[in-house]
Amino acid sequence: MEEMNQSQQHQNSAIKPIIPIRFIVKLGGAAITCKNEFEKINEEALETVSLQLRQAMMSGSSSGKSLGMDWSKRPGISETPSVDEDFRDQPVFDSGSFIVVHGAGSFGHFQASRSGVHKGGLDQPLVKAGFVATRISVTSLNLEIVRALARECIPSVGMSPFSCGWSTRERNIVSADLSMVTKAIDSGFIPVLHGDAVLDASLDCTILSGDVIIRHIAEQLKPEFVVFLTDVSGVYDSPPTEPNAVLLKEIAVREDGSWFVVKPKLEDMNRQVQITVASHDTTGGMVTKISEAASIAKLGIDVYIVRAGTNDSLRALSGEIRGNTPEDWLGTVIRFVK
Fold first, then answer.
1. pTM more than 0.85
2. Regarding the domain with residue range 2-59+92-336, which homologous superfamily does it belong to in the CATH classification?
C-alpha cells in the first residue's frame, strides 16, 4: 500500500507545462568547476556552456544582441551595474524551453563527505552542521550558474530541491513537486536545479544527486532528449586517462535495463566498462550517471554524453544528433532498443 501511495505521489507531483520541453541538460560538476580546487568555478568553461545554451535556445531565430540580465554587483568589480534600456525594444523569441540541472563539483561534496550527510543521522551535531554547510555551498554555486546564464540573456531562475519540498526514503525519491518548475517554464523562464541535501524519511537526510533529479524530471515531463555535459568526450571502455581507452559512441538499452555497446564493435564482448569514482564523491560519479541515463533511455528519450564547451556539445544541444548519429560526432549516445 505504501509503495502504491508513493507511486501515486510521483504521478501527481508533476503538472505538465503548456510549453513543450526540448531538452534537459546536466552540467557536470567536473566540467564547470575545478574539481580538485575547493569551491572554484571554471569560469571559462561556464561562460562557454552558457553561450552554447543561448545559441541552442535561439536555434532557428535571429539571436541578435545579447542583453545581460544580471544587474547585481559582481565580486571584485567596483562599478555599479547598469540596466540595458534596449530591453524595451527586445522582441519576444519563440525559442522552445529547456531545463538545467547541475552537479556540485568542488562545491558541496567536501562538506557532505566530511560530515556524513549522505549517510543520514540529523541527531548528530556534525551531520546537522554538514547539512547546513552543504546547502550553503551548492546554492552558492547555483547562484553563480544562474548569473552566468543571465549574462547571456537566458531568463534563468534557480530552484533548490530541498526548498521545493523534494524528499526521499532510503535515498529514493518519494516527493518531488514539479509544479513550480512547470509554472516557471510556462512563464518563459529556464529552471536551474541542482544536486542538494534533502530530508529522508528513513535516514533523516541524504544527498540527492543531479543525475537522479534529471531521471525523475524526464519521467514526468518527457523532453525530446537529454544532454550530459562532462569533462570527457563520453563513456569509455576503461578510464579515459589510459592510452588505449576506447570511446563508446553508441550504447543500446534493453527493456530490462541491461545495456550493450553498439558502436564500436568491441573485440572482447565480455569486457566490462571500467569506472573510476573520486573518493570524495558522495553521489556515485559515472556509475550513477550511466544507470540514470539508461533509465531515461528506456523511456524512449535519447541521452547524449559529451564534453562540455566543444562543437560536439553544441551540436547535441541544438538537436543535430537526434536520429542517426553523425560519424564525426565525438560523444556517447544511449538509446532504447526493443
1. yes
2. Acetylglutamate kinase-like (3.40.1160.10)
pLDDT at 113 over 70: yes
Q: Which residues contact 196 (CB under 8 A, 6 or more apart)?
A: 135, 138, 160, 161, 162, 166, 207, 208
**What mean pLDDT value characterizes the chain?**
85
The binding site for substrate comprises 104, 109, 210
Lowest mean pLDDT among 10-14, 53-57, 147-151, 321-325: 10-14
Indicate the residue type of 112.
Answer: A
Residue 65: CA count within 13 A, CB half-sphere? 10
Grid coordinates given for 241: 586517462
Which residues are annotated binding-site positions for ATP? 105, 231, 285, 289
> Known binding site: residues?
104-105, 109, 210, 231, 285, 289
Domain ranges of the chain: 2-59+92-336
